[in-house]
Every structure is written in C-alpha cells, then in structure tokens.
Amino acid sequence: MTGVTRIFGSTVHALGPVDLELRRGEFFSIVGPSGCGKSTLLDVLAGLSSPTDGTITFEGKRVRGTVPDGVGVVFQEDASFPWLSVRDNIGFGLLRAGFRGAEADDRVRHAIDFMGLNDFADAYPNQLSGGMRQRVCIARTLVMRPRLVLLDEPFGALDQQTRLLMGDELLRLWRVSGATVLLITHALDEAAMLSDRIGVMSSRPGRFIEIVETGWPRDRTSAIAAEPAFGEVTTRLWNTLREESLKAMASQRRVIG
Ligand SMILES: Nc1ncnc2c1ncn2[C@@H]1O[C@H](COP(=O)(O)OP(=O)(O)OP(=O)(O)O)[C@@H](O)[C@H]1O
C-alpha cells in the first residue's frame, strides 16, 4: 500500500499516509495506541472500506470495494453462525464459493482435524468455549486457503492462557500454509512472540513510526518468550509506544474535557 489515508466525514483523520509492503510469507504484526487507526488500516487493506487517498495492491492488482480472492479476514468478535454446526460453519465459505463434494468435504475434515475440533464437529457454537469458537472462525477462513490472512485482534476476548495456546496454533498454521499473515494486536508480548516484523503506529492519524525486525527462526513457539532477546524486543516496542500512548491519552482528555 502506498500513501494510504482514511478520513471519516470531513474531520476525523483516522489514518496515514501509510506505506507498507508485506514480504511474501512473513508474519507481520501491527501495534499502536488505542484509536490510532489499526482497524481502519485492516479494513482498507481488506477492501472492506475505501481509502480516501492512496493505493492498495494485492498480487499486482488494485484492491477496491471487495475482499480480493486469496485474502482471508478474521475479526475479534465471534463471527460464527449460531444456527450452523462447527462442520457447517467451517464449510460455509467453501459452499458459497461453489465447492461441493469430495474436495469440500476433504478440506473441512482436514481443518477440523488440524484445529483439534474432531469431538465437536457436530456441536453448535453455543456449546463451545470462546477459544474454540475463535478456532472455528480461523478454520473457516483457512479452508479457503488464503495467501494473505488479515487478523484484527482475534484473541482479544480470550484469557491469557488461551491466548498463548492460540498464538502457538496460529504459528503452526502460518508455517504449514505458507501464507502471509498480518495481525493487529493490543498485546506487545503477543506481537513480539509471533512476528517476523512489527509495525508500531503513531497516535491518530496512524502512521508507522518504527518497524521492528525480530529475527526469530521460522519454527518458533511461545517458548521464545523465555529468551533474553524477547525482552529486548518488547522493551523496544514499549519505549516507542509509551510516548505515543501518552499523546493519544492527552488528546482524548482534551476531547473529553
Ligand atoms: N465509521 C467511522 N466514522 C467516523 N469515525 C470513525 C469510524 N471508524 C473509526 N473512526 C475513528 O477513527 C479512529 C481510528 O479508529 P480505529 O477503530 O481504526 O482505531 P484502532 O486503532 O483500531 O482502535 P482500538 O485500538 O481502540 O481498537 C478513531 O478515532 C475512531 O473513532
């Protein structure tokens, strides 16, 4: 994406200008102060909302208006369909895309197995824990075999222990699928643990003020958090973000006061 901005109405300058080029197959996370435009960035990247200025391309083609083929999106809120079983939730996108028969069945079976949902394939979302429901949503995106996966705070509603386990699962999926992953998160340790690169955004209007390269091996797990280098990465992120968060809080106070 180049020179991307998003202004809501005529006054709320939410984002940019932002330039970002994702490397094929990398795990890139975005952190930034609350309200800096992270979700706005993801929405315009996904084609769900149009930028006010600038261009976004995916595999050489301009993105506008719709989510391009090959891009999958996972949101924070539980987006599973309560009236469909786990199996049918996961197969929903495939059905809509015209996949039928053995190919669709195989992909759904494989996803259920991979996500450890075998005992729950015929259960309904209200019979599952929050973590399992989010696993269903991730599986539903991944059966489409996206080459780019965009995740907006997918573990935001989960407890810390489940977040760590889901992080490891996401790393495993990323490794096996070869997809490029872009994750938005509030949690600096989550970004530090999972990513090849982390983009730190300024307070609104959000721009990248630093891109941190972690240098982790591809076969990492959450155990990386025990390494001394992990502490260095989180400290660096926090030092950059602290100042920006203070600015964001001060401007919110001005709006409220
Ligand atoms: N549809 C909209 N109309 C007007 N303003 C909007 C709209 N969507 C977002 N905004 C504003 O744009 C700014 C950025 O919002 P956004 O949700 O992208 O931030 P964020 O970084 O994802 O926030 P958080 O970390 O709290 O989830 C905020 O000031 C928000 O109020």
TrEMBL record:
Keywords: ATP-binding, Nucleotide-binding, Transport. GO terms for molecular function: ATP binding. This is ABC transporter ATP-binding protein. SUPFAM superfamilies: P-loop containing nucleoside triphosphate hydrolases. The keyword Transport applies. It comes from the Bacteria. Residues 2-228 form the ABC transporter domain. Belongs to the ABC transporter superfamily. InterPro entries: AAA+_ATPase, ABC_transporter-like_ATP-bd, ABC_transporter-like_CS, ABC_transporter_ATP-bind, P-loop_NTPase. Transmembrane segments: none annotated. It comes from Azospirillum brasilense.
